[in-house]
Amino acid sequence: MESLIKQWDGESVIIRYDRVADAWIFIAIHSTALGPSAGGTRMKPYPHLREALEDALRLSGGMTLKWAAAGNNYGGGKGVIAVPDSLDSQGRSDLLRRYGTFVHQYNGIFFTGPDYGTSSEDMDIIAETGDPYIFGRTKAAGGSGNPGPYTALGVLTSIQVVAEQVFGTSNLEGKKVLVQGVGSVGRGLTTLLRETGAEILISDVDPSLTQYLSDEFGLESIPSDEAYDRPCDIFAPCAVGAILNKETIPRLRCRAVAGAANNQLGTPGDADLLRERDILYAPDFIANCGGAMAIIGMEVQGWSHKEAEEKLVHAIKSNLSQVFQMTKADGCSTDEAGKRIAERRLSGA
Ligand code: PHE
Predict the structure, then answer these.
(1) Cα–ligand 1 centroid distance for 7 (angstroms)
(2) Which residue, 127, 111, 146, is CA-closest to 34?
(3) Is the CB of 38 under 6 A from ligand 1?
(4) Which atom of ligand 1 is least distant from the CA of 111?
(5) Are 2-62+74-141 and 148-289+317-347 in the same CATH fold?
(6) Confidence class for position 348, pLDDT limits 50, 70, 90
(7) Residues 19-51: pLDDT tens digits?
């Protein structure tokens, strides 16, 4: 674990062991260059504690790029709560309240919201003790609710922009889009894609999630280990990170990748592998900024729901078109181009 922190390029990590729940909490503060750190809280069991720390470090770095590229005055942060498998619902709620107290103690150097394994309802519980540092509470509790649909809208926009680059049209009618992971965001994405006339393929490690969508809407479901091999026009990763790597990239049979998962690349060099295979990659931290951008816009800047939608669509279109121009002009990968856009803002801070 020491070497993970040594190799990391962020600012600080806060660690707490919660004795009551036998849970470990990591809050990684990657950057405060543009403002206080902010990022979701991920909660799940981890086979090894090292992986929980690694998630916090990597994901907080992704948040720095996301906020900078989206034009928000926040820095990258991420909370990870590594819980035991045995945690029951009462124990979980109590842990969330203690987590809120913990976040509150840091007086706004870290703001948080929902992420994998936490919901808006969980944010309501965390906010009982963590207010005013908690975003994405339910509407009933005065928040702006689940960011998932906004993230999904941003991913749909990204898919349309890459389609335009690759096929000369953003019209998705008849285009095969493979959605990997149909949790909150992936499922919302399939809803939006159905309205575009795209042919949707779905895949998830949890068969109960794909079963529902297949039964209800007739979507073709693909076994999760075959998702990379299946020919499609656009591959949309909406599950875990690091799925674009030297094992999977040679297997891909798509023209473009645009999805919601955080940290999709195994290593930065994998963006070059995609480019060599002529697969256009929408940098994850640009494609998936919709939820975070909308929640901050509505809760801090007073945007309406409609304004949030318009602004996130505009920001993503504008950032992606800059990215694709930069890659054409100097042959860098799209990931590198996206990072330059973010770093331009960070260095001007
Ligand atoms: N889970 C969000 C993301 O990865 C994080 C977030 C949501 C941050 C809502 C703030 C508010 O983008």
Answers:
(1) 25
(2) 111
(3) yes
(4) 10
(5) yes
(6) confident
(7) 999 999 999 999 999 999 999 999 999 999 999
Residues with catalytic function: 78
Q: Whose CA is nearest to atom 12 of ligand 1?
A: 292
Q: Which CATH superfamily is domain 2-62+74-141 in?
A: Leucine Dehydrogenase, chain A, domain 1 (3.40.50.10860)
Distance 240 CA to ligand 1 centre (A): 15
Task: Provide the residue ranges of all domains of the chain, joining segments of one domain with +.
Answer: 2-62+74-141, 148-289+317-347
Beta strands 75-82 and 23-29: pairing type? antiparallel
**Homologous superfamily assigned to 148-289+317-347:** NAD(P)-binding Rossmann-like Domain (3.40.50.720)
CA of 10 to the centre of ligand 1 (A): 18
Does the pLDDT of residue 232 top 70, yes or no? Answer: yes
| Alpha helix segments (H runs only) across the chain | 2-7, 49-70, 89-105, 120-130, 148-167, 184-194, 207-217, 270-276, 284-287, 290-299, 305-330, 334-347
